[in-house]
Design goal:
There is one protein chain. This protein is mainly α. It is built from six helices and no strands. Helix 1 (2-28) runs antiparallel to helix 2.
Length: 185
């Protein structure tokens, strides 16, 4: 049971620190537009060290969270999906957008498996949060399809990319909180 709390803590801290450092990087990046700039633009230039280290930490915390949670639930498919999401995130940090095609492959893995993981977490949690994770996962995957088709719905490419990423980050923090709170007596 203790491993469930650790998994939750790692998921929550990983998602939260990434979101905070992403916002700080956006504020510090000269002329940055959340509508027009991609999130990964933060991984080159002035904010590179900040952003890339934060996403590597996120990926590692996701992987360690998957391992800790696996010792409790023993669902290999979920551990695999969550670990792949973490590996993709580490790859995004190790291969900034000027390392093509490795960056695009890493981001694609993170986006795709992040959305799938959200949906598959449905079976591991209780109502009503189980409904929320399906909605978040569906939003991530639908936004990924629109992004690939270059349909930005007036938000620009950066805005549509955020519609992929934000639900994954919200899920990571929410799932982490859920795991930590589920141990309360």
């Amino acid at each position: 049971m203790y491993s469930k709390r650790i998994a939750g803590l790692l998921s929550f801290v990983g998602a939260s620190q990434f979101f905070i450092f992403m916002l700080i990087s956006e504020a510090l990046y000269p002329g940055y537009s959340i509508s027009e700039n991609m999130i990964s633009d933060l991984g080159i230039g002035f904010t590179a060290a900040f952003f890339n280290s934060s996403i590597i930490v996120l990926g590692l915390m996701i992987i360690f969270s998957a391992i800790a949670f696996h010792s409790f639930h023993k669902k290999y498919y979920f551990t695999f999906l969550l670990s792949l999401t973490g590996v993709g995130a580490v790859g995004v940090g190790l291969f900034p957008e000027n390392f093509s095609p490795y960056h695009e492959i890493s981001a694609g893995i993170t986006f795709l498996f992040g959305g799938i993981t959200q949906i598959f977490s449905f079976a591991l949690i209780r109502f009503p949060f189980s409904i929320v994770v399906i909605i978040l996962g569906g939003l991530t995957l639908a936004s990924l399809v629109l992004f690939v088709l270059e349909i930005y719905l007036g938000m620009g490419p950066g805005g549509m990319e955020r519609m992929i990423v934000y639900p994954v980050i919200l899920w990571g923090a929410g799932f982490g909180g859920y795991l930590m709170a589920s141990e309360r007596r």
